[in-house]
TrEMBL record, chain A:
Gene: pstC
Official protein name in the record: Phosphate transport system permease protein
The species this protein was found in: Parasedimentitalea maritima
Role summary: Part of the binding-protein-dependent transport system for phosphate; probably responsible for the translocation of the substrate across the membrane.
Residue ranges occupied by any ABC transmembrane type-1 domain in the UniProt entry: 257-480
Membrane topology of the entry: Multi-pass membrane protein
UniProtKB/TrEMBL annotation, chain B:
A GO biological-process term: phosphate ion transmembrane transport
Classification via InterPro entries: AAA+_ATPase, ABC_transporter-like_ATP-bd, ABC_transporter-like_CS, P-loop_NTPase, PstB-like
Alphabetical keyword list: ATP-binding, Nucleotide-binding, Phosphate transport, Transport
Organism of this sequence: Parasedimentitalea maritima
SMART domains tied to this protein: AAA
Protein name: Phosphate ABC transporter ATP-binding protein
Domain ABC transporter, first and last residues per copy: 11-260
CDD domains (alphabetical): ABC_PstB_phosphate_transporter
One GO term describing the cellular component: membrane
A Pfam family reported for this protein in Swiss-Prot or TrEMBL: ABC_tran
Gene Ontology MF annotations: ATP binding; ATP hydrolysis activity; phosphate transmembrane transporter activity
Record bears the keyword ATP-binding: yes
Keyword Nucleotide-binding: yes
Amino acid sequence: MPTFWLIACLFLMSAAGFILGRYRAVLSTGGEVRKLHSLPSYYGYNVALSTLLPALAALALWSILQPLVIDARVSGMISTDMNSENTSAELMMSDVQRVSEGLNIAVARNEMTNEEIRVMDADTVDLRSRLADLGIALGSEVRPEILTAARQHQDMTHAGRLMMTIVVVLLAIVGFARSYGLTDKDFRARNVVERCVFALLALAASLAILTTVGIVFSMLFETISFFGLHSWKDFFLGTTWAPNFRGDSELSILPLLWGTIYISLIALLVAVPIGLYAAIYLSEYASSSTRSFAKPLLEILAGIPTIVYGLFALLTVGPMLVRIFGRGSEGLLGLTWMTGATSVLTAGLVMGIMLIPFVSSLSDDIINAVPQSMRDASLGLGATKSETVRQVVIPAALPGIVGAVLLAASRAIGETMIVVMGAGAIAKFSTNPLEAMTTITTRIVSQLTGDTDFASPETLVAFALGLSLFVLTLGLNILALAIVRTYREQYD
Amino acid sequence: MNDMTLTERNVDIKDIKIAASNVQVHYGETHAIKDVNVSIEDKTVTAFIGPSGCGKSTFLRCLNRMNDTIQTCSVKGNILLDGEDIYDKRVDVVQLRAKVGMVFQKPNPFPKSIYDNVAYGPKIHGMARGKSELDEIVEKALRRAAIWEEVKDRLNAPGTGLSGGQQQRLCIARAVATEPEVLLMDEPCSALDPIATAQVEELIDELRQRFSVVIVTHSMQQAARVSQKTAFFHLGSLVEFGETGQIFTNPNDPRTESYITGRIG
């Protein structure tokens, strides 16, 4: 039975369980719902969930574990049989899997029968060409050992599938029978359902956390293999970024880190004052009608895709800066400082614009959280509005604002598209903001796009860069959260 | 309530500090204050009493234009401070509030040090020429608010770390430090325990030597204890205004009598 139908069947059983459980609960009091411990539908949910959940869990677990177990057993067989051959067990295994898959497809399309496969002899039948006719390409002729192994693989898969179906259906029946038997007017179905809800919510939360951990670990392993191929001294302490796909590259993070920090700094210099002033205007000065349309309008900026900001940088801001700082006598200032449109300043300015709503909306919330009584106290002493903002509101909100700025900084550091389009691709140490520079994120993109060999340090360096970036932003986020948390306790 | 007839009541005619006539306040559609006329004398404690929602706090906030911060609020009528209309266009609200200080219901010290809390007003108004002069002002204000002895060793500790009663006296010190001419107090003791209340009341009596004090209170005993003049508000109107002793012992209006004896409120 295909897994889809198995799942559909489970849901059907569960739905039936709901109706039956609800009915039985009502029957147990002779139709008087008031005498039940819980509402009738809770009894229904209880039966439905106990039918569905254990069976689904078993199904999921089995589907994950079965291929692993079967592969391990088949590969054990091959490696004992054919250690004389000079091919690696891994390659053989993938051959076996492909043949097995191919045979499955052939059977499914009625091109072969299971009996035919069972008696097939690899030496006499040209399996490769027959499978090729079906659209399954094999790398080499099928050898008898591989065919045997593939057959084994297939048999085990079939047997495993059958067993899984039986176990899952059995579990569903047991779950149904048990919960149905328990259904009675004194049974605390409501509490059981409550526990299920708790488990569901906890599962959702832990999945998010586990995914993060998974991402970190996958990067960590690739990073470790990178440091196996490339010296860590060059990565952390070198001064040149010169990847060379013929090998012998110089891969140092420092020039990239410098570019990242420089561009982020310019972005923050733009975003923090403008965002903060906007927040102060919105929360302290604007009338409620102004605020009700200005705030959403400002937040629209946050909804613009970064690629659009990138275009803006490339087509508008870059050429504008060139007209101001470049072109010699034709330029506005008659300078020749800037030649190309891509520069640190271009990317920084545009990224700063992107961050404005980020800073302003967070700061606005924080400023609004400062109690009105603080403002009243200051105004009541004869302070003006701006004195009140400067001397009472902002100091009280400062830790929160710092947190908001740090969050904005970690966004700036991780930003990619604007930098790809606005900052250029030259990795170097320079303090001139009118020169092109590059960042960690753009180098990750360029190292992983195109034809890549996943065993070379030039590719693997992307993971090391990614992990460094992750550590950097994680550190900033933790710092920001810690600051925001201490701030929360201030007025109690 | 008998004791207050015994406390000597200064019935001499004093200067009128604030004269309010025909004051109307609207919050949007709501008519919060209806045609109120009150004269607040200098160096006198005037108490505003009345049931919740009767408009006494609203009226108090008109006296230093704190209602300006509420957008929907509109004030009509005349309020004269030393003969000048405080709602006149030429009046600087900021100057006015420096002259008419305010203490709020809930103690609201700034999350700054005790010293900075008190020094806040004097610094803004440039009252001190140097650090030592500022120190003097702070000490004087804290002494006047009867809290100096308790905090003199920890002036740099945060004001929010004090107890409720101390915080309220700190707020009074903060208001006093700017040398106002009138001090408005909006239920200053409602968040305090009886001991702290007694301290604040004692303080109010001392403050009368220098300022005109207007206090809004829910407690009739408090009004009787600390004030010389009492105004009774009901449903946005000023029902009766007169000598505290007379209001509490021999009210003219039947509504005042029912409130004082506990039948409305």
